[in-house]
Amino acid sequence: MPRARLARFAIAAILLALTATGCSTVVSGAGQLVAPSTAPDATLAVVGDGHTSFDRLARNSIADIVAFWKKQFPHIAGGKSLTPLTGKIYSVDDSDITASALRNGCLARAGVRVIKDNAFYCTLDDSIAYDRNGFLPKLVAAYGDYFAAAVFSHEFGHAVQARLGIADKERSIVRESQADCAAGAFTASVLAFQAPHLRVTSDQLDQVLTGYIQLRDPVSHAATDPGTHGTGFDRLSSFSDGIEKGVKFCFASAYAKRQFTQRPFVSDSDAQTGGNVPLDQVLDPTPSHDGLLPNLNAFWRAKAKTIGKSWSDVAVVEADHPKCGATAQSDFGYCPDDNTVYYSHKIATSAYSFGDYALGTMFTYGWGLAVRHQLFQRSLDDKPALLAAGCYSGAYAKSVNVDNANGFALSPPDMDEAATAVMTLVGHQEAFGDRGTTGLDRIDSFTLGYFGDLPAC
To answer: How would DSSP label each residue in 62-89?
Structure first.
């Protein structure tokens, strides 16, 4: 569906009231109550250490990441031990570049622009550098302390690639995706309380991953372009695979065959609108209108026929609350009795503010529940129902995420808008409710449908 991209480290307003959790307090989330670490702060040597709270977080994060890879590296390197960084770790203030900072190989070659609002692994001297006063600390403040560990574990993933001798053997998007997968594998160890300094709950991880979407590439990039990292959806699915499947999956030779959704605009008109259509077009159910809602009915009508079943087209109605099972908070939902998806103007405009397909994804979930009801006569109000609807939504998204000049199709930004909706909007009590799922659970089910199609659901 024809939307403009956020800046690389933009702070989105998705989570309206986030509180960063410090290392000295008890943290909770998703039914968890997790005691803070009692380990003393790491004593890593950092060139230019400003002794800020972000520097402290960086030291502790990198120390835990290195400890993780000391254990895991032999499993993917034929028994070889992890060699330490031959370069150094650099903390840099982008507004006051010191002579010591310029000893970093990448800073010395490219200048201040390479460090501003950034963190990186430098292949020139096998070092890690970060901007302690740029957007990274702001993102940590918005999305939680563990955001820093997610970034540093991605960067150390590149150090692992260098040690395996594969850093330059694949195109950029594969290398970056593999580093995201490595960050996920490290995160699994933190979730299992195996990191000395770091703690993260599932709720906090959802906040971090919502921020991680913002580290996507500009939509004008093609998957084959140098420096490409992938869409926010690509990055989340890679991170999630690392959590679920571990380092052996991330660094297997087959990883290079991974599919990606990153693609450029194919028309000037789509680029000029940023990939968005007006709100009233998203909400238009007219069959003659070549839009999302009639396309959803056509898609599921065809799929029902393949399994010998009939499909009754789902209707849409604007109302303050759904007619069935409505609560005081409910503004969006599917009612099986009249086969209708209900939405309020308030929730439609709110979802649309994140992009046309953020709202569109809400509707694909409604249709997913209709699929579960019409074709399989299964429950609609529990966790399995929401995850199944997400899987069906992913399968539908794959079918329309094509460079198609004729008929309904997604625009390059739409997969990121879908990821935002799945992570944050779908689980709101005003919408479908989380039903005991995390944002990561929902991303996993959506990804399963996208890459596995309907048989995987």
So the answer is: HHHHHHHHHHHHHHHTTTPPPPPPSS-E
Cβ pair 18, 142 in contact under 8 A: yes
What residue type is assigned to position 1 of the chain?
Answer: M
Among residues 445, 419, 435, 436, the alpha carbon closest in space to that of 14 is found at 419
pLDDT in tens, 195-210: 999 999 999 999 999 9
**Cα–Cα–Cα angle for 351, 291, 341, rounded to 5 degrees:** 55
Give the strand pairing for 89-92 and 46-47: parallel
Reported as a single tens digit per residue, the pLDDT across 88-146 is 999 999 999 999 999 999 999 998 889 999 999 999 999 999 999 988 999 999 999 99
Ranges of H-type helices in 195-330:
202-212, 232-250, 268-272, 279-282, 292-306
- HSE-CB for 403 with a 13 A CA cutoff: 8
**Residues, the chain:** 457
Quick one: residue 227, left, alpha or beta (phi over 0 = left, psi -120 to 50 = alpha)? left
Encoding tokens for residue 5? 């991209």
- CB-side neighbour CA atoms (13 Å) of 400: 29
Q: Which of 91, 120, 96 is nearest to 106 (CA)?
A: 120
